[in-house]
Write a structure and sequence with these properties.
Helix 6 packs across helix 8. This protein is globular. The chain is of the alpha+beta class. The strands form two sheets. Strands 2-1-5-4-3-7-8 form a seven-stranded mixed beta sheet, with helices on both faces. Strands 6-9 form a two-stranded antiparallel ribbon. The chain has a domain of 146 residues: Glutaredoxin. It is 38% helix and 15% strand.
Length: 220
Amino acid sequence: MVDLFLDRVLIENNWDQDELNTEREIIGILENRIIMLFFASAECEKCLEFVPVLNDFFKRLKDPAYIEYPKLLALIYISLDQSEEKQEKYLKELHKKVLFLAFEDPYRKELQTMFKVKDVPTIVVLRPDGSVLSPNAVQDICRFGCDCFQNWQESAELVERSFMLNEEFDNLNLRSATDPVRRLKYKTEDDKRKKKCSTGVEMHPRRRKGSQSIIRCHQV
């Protein structure tokens, strides 16, 4: 996963927009982490509607004001905006710990092609080894919130030091009855994509009653 950005410059979405351009910096911020590649555009209404949901999801997993042990997670915004001005406008709405590629970096389009992104918003979730855990986690984040990360983490077999604390083991008993099903979903994601490719038919999950509203995607 780290190799995907080793020869690139990642920028932090803080006031100074600090650049991470050395191998040591890139490895330090991405190694052994689940990576979320967020493809979006300021021109997309659904992308704007999704921002508050994503910010709340991310800060509850990364912001020390909300969690004692920030999770091994990185969020990288891959802008599909038509101008740098629009990219900057959208970045102002995103959490300050988000990383992004500069507008002039052609790698943005290469990543869009690499992960076959045709609609926005799209969040491609990658395991630390670079394999795809979810081709688009937008709907799952809307439905399940932070529970998604627990499932991603177990599917990726990612172990944190904080897991060794007694209170973490106590919390394992508090999972909902749907957790095993959701974890199985991510573990079989590759098989479902293979089946889709072989049959030409896309499989759609059944929508739950009482679930949160669905974020419809905008084709790019």
